[in-house]
Design brief:
129 residues; mainly alpha; 5 helices; rod-shaped
């Protein structure tokens, strides 16, 4: 191979590299840097419909690990949203139990303070004398 031929191959390789970089830049321009919730949800739903992770990743240009993370978050939040009313009801019930326990303890304290505990513990007689 002559020096001229080597220079020609070097220019072709450089040109091919430039073309590849241009294609990559165009692909990056099409893939949004920040995905909307709707777009993320659509991709996650595709995964939930058993589409191949690598295919969805390749088509959407989102790394597979990121898609897995979106899917995990999607499922966690979805389950949390469904249990929200139940969780709220549970918190309210616990608060009410706490309030009732405080009232009960206060009533016991007042009963003890007034010395009424001894009378309440005495067995009652059947007849009034």
């Amino acid at each position: 191979m002559t020096v001229t031929e080597e220079a020609g191959h070097g220019a072709e390789a450089e040109e091919a590299g430039d073309t590849a970089r241009t294609v990559q830049s165009a692909e990056r321009a099409r893939a949004p840097e920040r995905w909307s919730v709707q777009s993320k949800s659509e991709l996650v739903l595709r995964l939930l419909r058993a589409e191949a992770l690598d295919a969805v990743s390749r088509e959407s240009q989102v790394p597979a690990h990121e898609l897995k993370s979106w899917k995990r978050i999607f499922l966690e939040r979805g389950l949390k949203i469904r249990s929200d009313p139940e969780e709220r009801e549970l918190r309210l019930t616990r608060a009410k139990i706490g309030e009732l326990m405080m009232r009960f303890e206060l009533a016991e304290h007042l009963i003890e303070k007034r010395g009424l505990t001894d009378e309440s513990k005495k067995p009652r007689r059947g007849g009034v004398g």
